[in-house]
């Protein structure tokens, strides 16, 4: 039996769950927790400048380290409302974030008290589950349930509200029981594995479409063993282009509207598609057959049973872990001989993929004039170490970058995924670096998104977190300006963004700052930033006219004549 304040109970429960880092922003409602963290050598507290960006750090930490990311919001009311965007982002990424929030004193509830808001109702909308602790002695129990819920497939963020009087109360509690890693139940039908193996064995144009289930399950080896046995190319859903190493000859890159033409053509023409750990969701398909063969036989493997066949009819659905199912398929296909038609299909893909890479390198060759996005992507491919981990925002420049960069060691790519958030990348990168301190972390952002989060440079400097943030500075909200140009007759309103020199701003915070105005200087300056060993910001002056409309489907109702009226 343990005794102490509710704040002590929180910290002891976190320690029992082997928490090594806690991200947070102090506030009076949670000061007992912060006081209990004081002097701890087993848990590092990372103080942030904003609750939203702090949750992004916890999100990146969780995704990179395959463990729960913990965030502590010390202030009820506004400190908790600021959590919403970060938790919604983590929810879209199925990221196991545990948010702990101080809340109003029990005696003041429903009295229109200072900073009163219904935190339980608010956070329920953006989490897998939200609790409000009823008694101080139950804090460790509910924290244990929070970790269990966050880390059990399908993973996701959770939140706990603890009234300030419960945190201050002296109480006793049972020793917290650490969460045991969830294991696959083994209920996947052997008959379904055999049926899937038969479909794949008889395919003439087989394709594996790998998603977050492969990446988050660290199942690259199982997926590659299956691909090599079948000689099937592997495409990936957007945001998961790092599911397998890009150097593998069967790597095709991302499929769909945010992918590349070679990968998308494979999905349009394959006769059997193994959707391995993917929902076949919005970013992959836009819920259309534009990038998916309507006549293909689809085998969908998903850890979430309700995702199977949800958006597209499937020939066969398998409820299970992507890596375990891939291993089962390899076992079922032992002795398989690849048909000549399959070898021809794969050889044709390899030629088209090689041509695409050559074309990209040619387009990225340094030239006079304004820096084009292709120049930056080529330079990053050239100078980024093989261990690099990339974080990205939404926005057209980052969306183009996701399939342009090279990912050698999974996990290596962290994006907002279906939430499409701007202002995510830099903070996420700080969390990723803390989870993987020996790897290189490079964060790509547009100038607008970076402007939202520059205060976290202070966190990077104070905490000694040496990431490199590359700001693609085109002086505008690029996606929206492209839509205003293409569909609204160039009637620009709110599209242009005046910025300070971000390299100078970085130096004022105590970080390293670099500025690039010529394509020919990109490689040398990026290399300096990567090797400097300090938090660094590289302000890259990108051509403001290099705009691209990704979501053309959203404006089909507008034509060139009506948009100019």
Which terms would index this structure?
single chain; 565 residues; alpha/beta; Rossmann fold; 3 domains; six-stranded parallel β-sheet; 23 helices; 17% strand; disordered C terminus
CATH class category of the largest domain: Alpha Beta
CATH topology of the largest domain: Rossmann fold
* Total strands: 20
CA gyration radius, whole angstroms: 24 Å
**What gross morphology would you assign?**
globular
Give the full name of the CATH homologous superfamily of the largest domain.
Thiamin diphosphate (ThDP)-binding fold, Pyr/PP domains
What portion of residues is helical? 25-40%
Integer count of domains: 3
Class based on secondary structure composition and strand pairing: alpha/beta
Number of helices: 23
CA distance, first residue to last residue: 74 Å
Oligomer: single chain
- Which sequence of strands runs across the widest sheet? 3-2-4-5-7-6
Mean pLDDT: 93
Low-pLDDT segments: 561-565
Can you name the CATH architecture of the largest domain? 3-Layer(aba) Sandwich
Quick one: biggest sheet?
Answer: 6 strands, parallel
Q: Which percent range describes the beta-strand content? A: 15-25%
């Amino acid at each position: 039996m343990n005794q102490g304040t509710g704040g002590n109970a929180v910290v002891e429960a976190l320690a029992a769950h082997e928490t090594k880092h806690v991200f947070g922003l102090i506030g009076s409602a949670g000061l007992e927790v912060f006081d209990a963290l004081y002097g701890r050598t087993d848990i590092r507290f990372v103080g942030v400048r904003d609750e939203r960006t702090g949750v992004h750090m916890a999100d990146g930490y969780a995704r990179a380290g395959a463990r729960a990311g913990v965030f502590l919001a010390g202030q009820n009311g506004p400190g908790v409302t600021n959590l919403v965007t970060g938790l919604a982002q983590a929810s879209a990424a199925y990221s196991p974030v545990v948010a702990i929030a101080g809340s109003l004193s029990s005696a003041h509830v429903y009295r229109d008290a200072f900073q009163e808001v219904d935190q339980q109702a608010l956070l329920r909308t953006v989490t897998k589950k939200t609790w409000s602790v009823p008694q101080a002695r139950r804090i460790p129990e509910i924290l244990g349930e929070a970790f269990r819920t966050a880390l059990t497939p399908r993973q996701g963020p959770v939140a706990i509200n603890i009234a300030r009087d419960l945190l201050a109360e002296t109480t006793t509690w049972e020793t917290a029981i650490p969460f045991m890693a969830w294991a696959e139940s083994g209920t996947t039908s052997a008959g379904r594995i055999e049926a899937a193996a038969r479909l794949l064995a008889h395919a003439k144009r087989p394709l594996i479409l790998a998603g977050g289930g492969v990446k988050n399950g660290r199942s690259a080896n199982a997926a590659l063993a299956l691909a090599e046995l079948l000689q099937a190319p592997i495409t990936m859903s957007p945001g998961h282009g790092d599911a397998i190493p890009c150097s593998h000859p069967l790597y095709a890159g991302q499929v769909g509207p945010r992918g590349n033409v070679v990968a998308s053509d494979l999905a349009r023409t394959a006769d059997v598609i193994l959707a391995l750990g993917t929902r076949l969701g919005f970013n992959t398909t836009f819920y259309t057959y534009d990038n998916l063969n309507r006549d293909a036989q689809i085998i969908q493997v998903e850890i979430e049973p309700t995702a199977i066949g949800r958006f597209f009819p499937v020939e066969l659905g398998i409820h299970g872990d992507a890596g375990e199912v891939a291993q089962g398929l390899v076992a079922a296909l032992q002795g398989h001989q690849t048909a000549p038609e399959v070898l021809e299909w794969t050889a044709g893909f390899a030629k088209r993929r090689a041509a695409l890479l050559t074309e990209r390198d040619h387009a990225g060759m340094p030239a006079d004039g304004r820096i084009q996005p292709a120049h930056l992507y080529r330079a990053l491919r050239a100078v980024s170490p093989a261990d690099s981990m990339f974080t990205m925002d939404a926005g057209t420049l980052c969306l183009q970058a996701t399939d342009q960069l090279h990912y050698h060691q999974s996990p290596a790519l962290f994006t907002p995924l279906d939430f499409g958030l701007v202002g995510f990348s830099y903070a996420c990168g700080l969390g990723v670096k803390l989870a993987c301190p020996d790897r290189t972390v490079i964060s790509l952002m547009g100038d607008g998104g970076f402007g939202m989060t520059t205060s976290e440079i202070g966190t990077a400097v104070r905490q000694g977190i040496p990431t490199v943030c590359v700001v693609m500075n085109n002086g505008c909200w690029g996606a929206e300006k492209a839509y205003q140009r293409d569909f609204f007759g160039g009637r620009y309103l709110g599209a242009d963004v005046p910025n300070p020199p971000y390299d100078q701003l970085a130096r004022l915070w105590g970080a390293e700052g670099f500025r690039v105005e010529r394509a020919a200087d990109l490689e040398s300056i990026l290399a300096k930033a990567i090797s400097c060993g300090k938090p660094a910001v590289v302000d890259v002056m990108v051509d403001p006219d290099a705009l691209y409309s990704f979501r053309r489907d959203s404006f089909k109702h507008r034509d060139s004549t009506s948009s100019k009226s």
